[in-house]
Amino acid sequence: QTVVTQEPSLTVSPGGTVTLTCASSTGAVTSDYYPNWFQQKPGQAPRSLIYSTSNKHSWTPARFSGSLLGGKAALTLSGVQPEDEAEYYCLLYYGGDQRVFGGGTKLTVL
Amino acid sequence: QVQLVQSGAEVKKPGASVKLSCKASGYTFTTYFIHWVRQAPGQGLEWMAIINPSTGGINFPQKFQGRITLTRDTSTSTVYMELSGLRSEDTGTYYCARENMWNHDYWGQGALVTVSS
User: Considering CB atoms only, which of A46, A97, A100 is closest to B59?
Assistant: First the structure.
């Protein structure tokens, strides 16, 4: 069974920078996994931030960026704002239309 | 504007089935896949299934084999997901989301399914 692993929780100060990662039990994450990143706040549906590793939507704040880092997918927030406090999920594609979500990272802005 | 509007909350008994709908608008229905994703209370997201509204082709993880059925009605731009043999672990919020070229951009508002005797 494929497992996608994220940091369970991270804390960052307002204005700071933080990187969330997304690892696969099958090995290094590459662009062929088309990593997606989603933000979810309590009581809300997930909101897409990044797709295919590093592509942003029109609504994605410029402070969010996606990349591959050390065999993992990564989401970096630069200049964190209080409203960035949320749960963040990555999604990886495994071929044959199969996808797996990571367990999520609870980001606290303190 | 793109919208995915889901059906309302459901309460079901163990062993029953639930059929949820996801009505798309604001784009050409057959040009985007539709995914179903669920979230148990206080837990993370779980990918459940994908349907190609153009062909009706579906795919889902092995764990849902024999329990999940996805259909679509192109005349109403609606996708349906039926889950049978409900158990308490199926309690949670169910979301639909559209996807094209690995871009899962718009999501439905979610539908709470409660399985309880």
Answer: A97
Which burial class, exposed, middle or buried, applies to B26 when counting CB atoms under 10 A from its CB (0-12, 13-18, 19+)?
exposed
Cβ <8 Å between B105 and A48: yes
pLDDT at A54 over 90: yes
What are B63-99's pLDDT values in tens digits? 999 999 999 999 999 999 999 999 999 999 999 999 9
Nearest to B36 by CA among B69, B85, B8: B69
Q: Which residue type occupies B8?
A: G
Signed CA dihedral, A35, B28, B61, B10: sign only: positive
User: Does A91 contact B at CB distance below 8 Å?
Assistant: yes
How far apart are the C-alpha atoms of B24 and A57, rounded to whole Å? 20
Q: Tell me the DSSP string of B14-79.
A: TT--EEEEEEEESS-GGGSEEEEEEE-TTS-EEEEEEE-TTT--EE--GGGTTTEEEEEETTTTEE
Tell me how far CA of residue B11 lies from CA of A16, B17, B112, in angstroms: 44, 10, 8
